[in-house]
Amino acid sequence: MSDSFVRATCPTCGDVVLTTADIGLQTDHGQSAFLFACPRCHEHVTREVPAGIIHILQAAGVHEVSPEPELIGADELADFLADFERVDCLDQLRRLDHGA
Ligand SMILES: [Zn+2]
Questions:
Q1: What are the backbone dihedrals phi and psi of residue 75, each rounded to the nearest 5 degrees, phi first?
Q2: Distance from residue 53's CA to the centre of ligand 1 (Å)
Q3: 6 CA to centre of ligand 1 in angstroms
Q4: 68 half-sphere exposure, CB direction, 13 A CA radius
């Protein structure tokens, strides 16, 4: 399978030619974008994709990438939830409730 060429626009360099392997497709909360590293200036460029074009990119073999990492990582979230399960945490809340 050979990669198709895709023309994209870098805000710095203008039109650049990429292959589908150079592009990542990102879908997040109904917004779609494709990302690529410009072959000339190596800037990471994100471009919004109109909904009607996503399937064309997918058909061309563009792979999907994960959205940007969340501000709270999975580990931090686990710590946060573990804190909630601590009994003394609930006791503290009860004490505050009684104005002690
Ligand atoms: Zn560029």
A1: -65, -45
A2: 23
A3: 15
A4: 11
Residue 85, pLDDT above cutoff 90: no
Dihedral angle, C-alpha 15, 34, 64, 59, nearest 10 °: -60
Residue 100 has pLDDT above 70, yes or no: no
Query: Does residue 8 register a pLDDT over 80?
Result: yes
| 34 Cα–ligand 1 center, Å | 15
* Domain residue limits, the chain: 1-68, 69-100
User: How many A from CA of 55 to the centre of ligand 1?
Assistant: 26
Taking Cα atoms as reference points, which of 79, 61, 71 lies closest to residue 6?
A: 61
| Separation of CA 14 and ligand 1 centre (Å) | 7
C-alpha 68 to ligand 1 mean position (Å): 21
pLDDT, residue 99, reads 61
Q: What is the pLDDT of residues 27-81, one digit of tens each?
A: 877 788 989 999 999 999 998 888 888 888 889 889 988 866 556 677 777 777 7
